[in-house]
């Protein structure tokens, strides 16, 4: 793998973003947004995987009315590591229309967690790509310790993980007493050795009452093979547990900046043809998960 960072390109022009092809329900959420700021104010981690993306809070807020999005969740990007300053400043600027998903160090204090909660944070992101080569027992211990720290606050866990790690954790996930979200439909790629049986086991996990799957990252799963490849996966999730599915744009589509966010939203017309089901995915499920009434 190259040590050179991916080059972040300018965002797709707003006037080329597709409009929703269906009636967006009031209170609709985008549960996966990354926000970036100036390098002078928000330093990045040493050796980030990509250059500073074109994706500020102001740019996203201009996009929201075009898509009919009323609420959103800001997810801490790896670019900033566990320095959540940019995310917290964005939450302060948006008020009640946004919630945060932070990344934390093991030694974080209860007082800092409480401060995050008061700022609108409701989840912690666990990047298991970084830990994929660790022993399974170490990964399970990391998850257990994190859940113990944030469970009392009513937060959920958000897993960014390769599909083979998700597969190996499915039985462990059944033991969690904290709600959790798995990004990008489980990220189960055939090229990583995942099979239909692995995805079926993931679908069965939805029956446990704690797991949510995020209908996000379609282009990361399909690569350059077309969204048709992803449709059976997304549709199966919606059919199995519409009350456990969420939609996220993954804006600003890091390293895929030319993606049409409206086109991604409109995939829901094929994945979830029913208006009532789309309302669950876009409004009811995220409201429940993020504690919004």
Secondary structure layout:
Blueprint (H helix, E strand, L loop, with lengths): L28 E5 L23 H11 L3 E5 L9 H10 L3 E5 L7 H10 L1 E7 L8 H15 L5 E5 L2 H11 L6 E3 L13 H10 L5 E5 L2 H5 L8 H10 L4 E3 L13 H6 L1 H4 L3 H16 L3
Parallel strand pairs: 1-2, 2-3, 3-4, 4-5, 5-6, 6-7, 7-8
User: What is the helical fraction, as a range of percent?
Assistant: 25-40%
| Total tally of structural domains | 1
Low-confidence stretches: none
Strand order of the largest sheet: 1-2-3-4-5-6-7-8
Tell me the distance between the termini: 45 Å
| Shape label | globular
Beta-strand segment tally: 8
Query: Mean pLDDT, nearest integer?
Result: 95
Largest sheet: 8 strands, parallel
Task: Tell me the number of helical segments per DSSP (H or I, 4 or more residues long).
Answer: 11
């Amino acid at each position: 793998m190259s040590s050179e960072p991916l080059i972040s390109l300018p965002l797709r022009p707003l006037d080329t973003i597709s409009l929703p092809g269906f009636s967006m329900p009031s209170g609709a959420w985008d549960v996966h947004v990354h926000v970036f700021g100036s390098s002078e104010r928000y330093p990045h981690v040493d050796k980030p995987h990509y250059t500073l993306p074109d994706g500020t809070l102001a740019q996203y807020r201009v996009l929201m009315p075009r898509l009919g999005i009323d609420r959103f969740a800001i997810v801490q990007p790896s670019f900033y590591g566990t320095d959540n300053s940019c995310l917290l400043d964005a939450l302060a600027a948006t008020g009640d229309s946004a919630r945060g998903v932070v990344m934390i160090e093991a030694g974080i204090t209860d007082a800092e967690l409480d401060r995050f909660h008061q700022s609108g944070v409701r989840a912690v992101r666990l990047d298991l790509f970084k830990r994929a080569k660790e022993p399974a027992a170490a990964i399970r211990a990391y998850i257990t310790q994190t859940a113990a720290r944030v469970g009392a606050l009513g937060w959920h866990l958000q897993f960014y993980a390769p599909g083979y790690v998700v597969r190996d954790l499915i039985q462990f996930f059944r033991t969690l007493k904290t709600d959790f979200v798995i990004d990008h439909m489980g990220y189960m790629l055939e090229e990583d050795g995942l099979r239909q049986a692995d995805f079926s086991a993931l679908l069965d996990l939805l029956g446990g009452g704690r797991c949510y799957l995020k209908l996000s990252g379609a282009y990361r799963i399909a690569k350059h093979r077309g969204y048709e490849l992803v449709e059976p996966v997304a549709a199966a999730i919606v059919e199995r547990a519409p009350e456990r599915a969420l939609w996220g744009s993954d804006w600003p589509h890091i390293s895929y900046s030319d993606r049409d966010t409206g086109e991604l939203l409109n995939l829901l017309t094929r994945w979830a043809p029913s208006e009532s089901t789309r309302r669950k995915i876009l409004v009811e499920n995220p409201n429940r998960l993020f504690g919004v009434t």
